[in-house]
Amino acid sequence: MVRSLALNVGTHQRAQERAQPILDECDKLQRLDVVSASLLKANVHVLTGNFEQFEYWLKNAAANGASPADIAKYRLTGYFLSGEISKSHALFEDTFRADAGNAIPFLHQAIASGWFHTARNALNSITPNGAPEALLNAVREGADMMDRLNLSEKTTSLILDEAHGLLVSRGLIWLGSCPEISILEADQGGPAIYMGFSVMTPPKEAAELGWELSMRLATQDLDTQGLLISYQGTVLEAEIDPAHSGVPA
């Protein structure tokens, strides 16, 4: 339920509206399994933008015997959804190894965080079961392009801190499990890595968010590093509810 909510909810407000039934189920689960219920509650609260409650329920899980690996896995997701990409980098490799049997979500997360090198290194030691060839190719091609550009994961993390952080500041959660990835050669405007994030706003507002991101990156000299970010609006103007737009009018 939480995974489906994360992929499709689009905004913190929509998550808040849909969270209560999940939290009610967590309350029932808590009578039987405090750790699992606390970890699920942490995930729900980070989707609603309540990061204090996210931290509270992680600490509650740890106090009741959650393993360090489980805490790291949920904290990784929390940092990711709260737009703190650079904070989560140190957790990724350990979490990948601890959950290698279900590594596909972590490869998606690595790509969306710009950690192509880390993901490639992980694949050198572990082959995730059932990973689509397109996903594996995106990891390898992205890492190769980073090598060509001399682009470090420290820099990509800073860029994506801004990209994800801007969405969080507007109450938005990007849609789907993985951004659109394209490797651009010179005749396509590159060399560069293009990443497109689908967001629940009209295309015009998504374009305005993209312009604001460009300005933020330019002030930090991060706009010419070879990682191009785009927001793709998915809502037609006539369909949007202003209460759910995530962007002030």
Describe the secondary structure blueprint for this structure.
Elements: H1 2-8, H2 12-30, H3 34-47, H4 51-63, H5 68-81, H6 85-98, H7 104-112, H8 116-125, H9 133-149, H10 153-169, E1 180-184, E2 192-199, H11 203-219, E3 227-233
Parallel strand pairs: 2-3
Antiparallel strand pairs: 1-2
Helix pairs in contact: 2-3, 3-4, 3-5, 4-5, 5-6, 8-9, 10-11
Explained architecture:
The protein is mainly α. The chain has eleven helices and three strands. It has helices spanning 2-8, 12-30, 34-47, 51-63, 68-81, 85-98, 104-112, 116-125, 133-149, 153-169, 203-219, and strands at 180-184, 192-199, 227-233. The chain has a three-stranded mixed β-sheet with strand order 1-2-3. β1 (180-184) and β2 (192-199) form a beta hairpin. α3 (34-47) runs antiparallel to α4. The longest helix is centred in the first third of the chain and has 19 residues, at 12-30. It is globular and about 60 Å long. Mean pLDDT is 83; it is low at 245-249.
What brief labels describe this structure?
mainly alpha; three-stranded mixed sheet; 249 residues; 11 helices; disordered C terminus; single chain
